[in-house]
């Protein structure tokens, strides 16, 4: 009995000392900073929908705390791009997000979008864009003002700031009472004013001149662009100014 008891005690002690291991899949926490509001909860697309739709296109989905895009899942019956837009509109803000693009990929972050799909067929008919791009792999990378971090087709930004394709970039847009600044990976890549004569002249000399409402209303929705290429977004947040 004594040897049996000793073996039993030893076995029990080993169980206590070596608890069973459980593998858990953890969703990356949503980044929290003082004064900032998260626009993406890391788990769902709550607060977002596709342009001109009541819900999000199936092309957009959440996986491992990331908003992902897969063109194979998009609603092919719709002719327009199925950009993912915020439910709410914003004016005077500091907006921050992380993006990663696929090889030869193209996407963008469009802001001041006026959601009126009857009059404006696409988000970019009203909203300017911060370009998201594989500079080396996509043909747009060869065009000045079309590279990652540029104010698309309007202003070229500082070069050598974005990371190689497949790596995460942190981008920021500050729009406040006529002043606009783009920041990529902590570096200010461009600044300008909006709404003045120079702003209007830039638009008149761009591809956006064909849409009279483009860049004329400085309050609107944010949009993640459906450009038909895989792209990923996370840590999307805003601070109202």
Question: What can you tell me about this protein's structure?
Answer:
The structure is a single chain. This protein is mostly beta strands. It has one domain (28-240): Jelly Rolls. The chain has helices at residues 2-17, 197-204, and strands at residues 37-38, 48-50, 60-63, 66-69, 84-86, 93-101, 106-113, 129-133, 169-176, 179-184, 187-193, 221-224, 231-240. The longest helix has 16 residues, at 2-17.
CATH topology: Jelly Rolls
Could you name the CATH class?
A: Mainly Beta
Query: Portion of residues in helices?
Result: under 10%
Q: Provide the CATH architecture.
A: Sandwich
What is the strand content? 25-35%
| H/E topology pattern | HEEEEEEEEEEEHEE
Q: What gross morphology would you assign? A: globular
Characterize the main sheet.
8 strands, antiparallel
Q: Supply Rg.
A: 23 Å
What is the total number of structural domains? 1
Annotation, overall tally of beta strands: 13
Q: Please, how many helices? A: 2
Furnish the topology, listing elements before pairings.
Elements: H1 2-17, E1 37-38, E2 48-50, E3 60-63, E4 66-69, E5 84-86, E6 93-101, E7 106-113, E8 129-133, E9 169-176, E10 179-184, E11 187-193, H2 197-204, E12 221-224, E13 231-240
Antiparallel strand pairs: 1-13, 2-5, 3-4, 4-13, 5-12, 6-9, 6-13, 7-8, 7-12, 9-10, 10-11
Task: Write a compact overview of the structure shown.
With 241 residues, the protein is mainly beta.
List keywords for this structure.
241 residues, mainly beta, Jelly Rolls, eight-stranded antiparallel beta sheet, 2 helices, disordered N terminus
């Amino acid at each position: 009995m004594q040897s049996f008891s000793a073996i039993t005690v030893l076995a029990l002690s080993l169980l206590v000392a070596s608890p069973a291991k459980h593998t858990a899949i953890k969703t990356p926490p949503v980044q929290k900073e003082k004064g900032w509001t998260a626009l993406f909860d890391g788990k769902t697309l709550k607060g977002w929908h596709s342009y001109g739709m009541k819900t999000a296109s199936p092309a957009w989905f959440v996986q491992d705390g990331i908003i992902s895009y897969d063109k194979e899942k998009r609603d092919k019956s719709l002719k327009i791009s199925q950009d993912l837009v915020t439910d709410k509109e914003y004016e005077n803000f500091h907006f921050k997000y992380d993006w990663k693009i696929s090889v030869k990929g193209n996407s963008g972050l469009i802001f001041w979008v006026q959601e009126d799909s009857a009059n404006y067929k696409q988000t970019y008919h009203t909203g300017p864009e911060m370009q998201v791009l594989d500079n080396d792999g996509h043909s747009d990378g060869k065009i000045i003002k079309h590279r990652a971090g540029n104010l698309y087709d309007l202003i070229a930004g500082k070069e050598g700031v974005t990371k190689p394709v497949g790596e995460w970039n942190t981008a920021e847009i500050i729009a406040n009472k006529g002043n606009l600044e783009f920041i990529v990976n902590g570096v200010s890549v461009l600044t300008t004013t909006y709404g003045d004569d120079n702003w209007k002249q830039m638009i008149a000399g761009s591809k956006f001149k064909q849409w009279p409402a483009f860049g004329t209303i400085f309050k609107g929705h944010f949009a993640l662009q459906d450009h038909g290429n895989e792209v990923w977004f996370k840590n999307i947040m805003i601070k109202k100014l």
